[in-house]
Design a protein that fits this description.
- With 231 residues, the chain is of the alpha/beta class.
- It has one domain: NAD(P)-binding Rossmann-like Domain (Rossmann fold, 3-Layer(aba) Sandwich), CATH 3.40.50.
- Helix content is 45%, strand content 15%.
- The protein has a seven-stranded parallel β-sheet, sandwiched between helices.
- Strand 5, helix 4 and strand 6 form a beta-alpha-beta unit.
- The model has no long low-confidence stretch (mean pLDDT 94).
Length: 231
Amino acid sequence: MRRALVTGAASGIGAAIAARFRADGLAVLTVDRAPGCDLRLDVAGPGAAETMAAAAAEQLGGLDVLVANAGVSAREPLEGHSDRTWDETLEIDLTSVFRLCRAALPLLKAAADARIILVGSVMSSFGAAGMAAYAAAKHGILGLTRALGVELGPLGITVNCIQPGAILTGITGPAFESDPAFASYWREKAALKRLGMPEDIAGVAAFLAGPDSRFMTGASLVVDGGATAHP
């Protein structure tokens, strides 16, 4: 049985990925700072990466698939953009991902056909007002994907990135509800004329975790309903 660790799995995209993996027969260790997961911790906390790797070794007996999904997002214009928001966003969305990949590497090296799946954003393809910290972090995820794909390929470990568009989750839902124009913009921008659902991302994660993606690494898959293709 293949074994997976999924961060940010208490709700939204992470929960959908964990559910899909379990339906596909994987043993899954879920992590989140919110309740409802196997391991409750802040992925950016001191020693968190090592704690997650140790938990995977103890509870799963190893690791075949690592999904780094945990993240935060805040909209603040540059004028008045706080250092705290910048530091927290980069720490959670990028630095913690790097640390987790590093800590999990011994387990992944010991596995056959290991996979790292990073969850980025379409913000790697374009910018948006008030999203400086988030966009910078997600550009970093794309760069990390490419660098680790090259570095870890000779070890038989693939590293790929999913770039979701506007996905309706428990976190984004209130933002869409409070700003109907914002939600309408994303629905109209998408060629499919709807917001994405977490399950739309989970299916792509299942593909990247499975045998059909075995010759893919250092790649990113945009899953946005055609929003970035639509002028």
